UniProtKB/TrEMBL annotation:
Organism of origin: Rhizobium anhuiense
Keyword Secreted: no
Protein name from the UniProt record: LysR family transcriptional regulator
Limits of the HTH lysR-type domain: 6-63
Family statement drawn from the similarity comment of this UniProt entry: Belongs to the LysR transcriptional regulatory family.
Keyword annotations of the record: DNA-binding, Transcription, Transcription regulation
A Pfam family: HTH_1
């Protein structure tokens, strides 16, 4: 194998082409000519000795060998970046970017404000905040840290359990005054429910009774939404009853725009976790943000130790 083509520049070009699937787009991003991008790829493939990319007139895709090589390149480039950053951190105050991904509604309602507080303490650290409910690949998308609600599949990420997000059933006074208050969980099937279409099992509500018994009640509604903030607006507007996280509606409960329904019966809490790319965990600015989030997120309404 000829190693002369295995430069970090060629690896970076290859990684961006693998992620973008378009040579001209990568050329614009890197500020180089498309011919240079092509030359980097050709030299890399020649050095490795196998085709890494399959090219058509419209799209560039990874070969099987390219997929494996891409994953290894990501680790190499991350380690190179980490080594440089740790050397800088040893001589000066932490600076640079941290990429944080967060569940969308939680990010809008609370985490954005927390980031303001963090940057007031560490003005040289830039935070790139990505709000999404999708289960993204942290390494592939260049994310350092992710806040996630819900159970997590097996992961190579470093996991920090922040606790559980407690939920309750709520409805607007305007809706309850017209339709009456349910007296027993079984009554819920006769009420309009604001349904989260992107949540598995949203056609039923699972409640824990005071004696610990689980009750499963089928529900339905004429309004289905795929975002927590839309559910919040729908509940406040009196479009029905629904289970919701306390942190999402605590202010509406405080000012009387929502009321708790069937307070003795609670939907099961949802795990809240912090995922960290292991190779990034030792970088000073990442560690500072992680420590800050661990301390502050636990203070949010309804977040309790597991």
């Amino acid at each position: 194998m000829d190693n002369t083509g295995l430069s970090l520049d060629r690896m970076r070009t290859f990684v961006r082409v693998a992620e973008r699937g378009n040579l001209s787009m990568v050329a614009r991003e890197l500020g180089i000519g498309q011919s240079t991008v092509t030359r980097h790829l050709n030299e890399l493939e020649e050095a490795v000795g196998v085709p890494l990319l399959s090219r058509t007139t419209r799209r560039v895709t990874l070969t099987d060998e390219g997929s494996r090589y891409y994953a290894n390149c990501l680790q190499i480039l991350r380690l190179v970046e980490q080594a440089a950053e740790e050397a800088r951190d040893a001589r000066q105050a932490p600076a640079g970017a941290v990429r944080l991904s967060c569940t969308a509604a939680l990010g809008v309602m609370h985490v954005t404000r927390l980031i303001f507080e963090f940057q007031d303490k560490h003005p040289d650290i830039r935070v790139d905040l990505n709000l999404t409910d999708e289960r993204i690949d942290l390494v592939r998308d260049g994310v350092d840290v992710a806040l996630r609600l819900g159970p997590l599949a097996d992961s190579a990420m470093k996991l920090h359990a922040l606790g559980e997000s407690h939920r309750l059933l709520v409805g607007a006074p305007t809706y309850l005054s017209v339709h009456g208050r349910p007296q027993h969980p079984a009554d819920l099937s006769r009420y309009e429910t604001v349904v989260m279409s992107n949540v598995a099992g949203s056609d039923r509500v699972v409640l824990s009774s005071p004696d610990g018994t689980s009750l499963i009640i089928p529900v339905s509604g004429k309004l289905r939404v795929d975002h927590g903030l839309a559910a919040r607006e729908a509940l406040a507007a009196g479009r029905g009853i629904g289970p919701t996280h306390l942190w999402l509606v605590h202010d509406l409960l405080d000012d009387g725009r929502l009321e708790v329904v069937l307070g003795d019966y609670r939907p099961s809490p949802i795990p809240l976790s912090l995922l960290i790319v292991p190779e990034r965990a030792a970088i000073a600015r990442v560690r500072l943000l992680v420590d800050f989030l661990v301390a502050e997120v636990s203070k949010l309404p309804g977040i309790r130790p597991s």
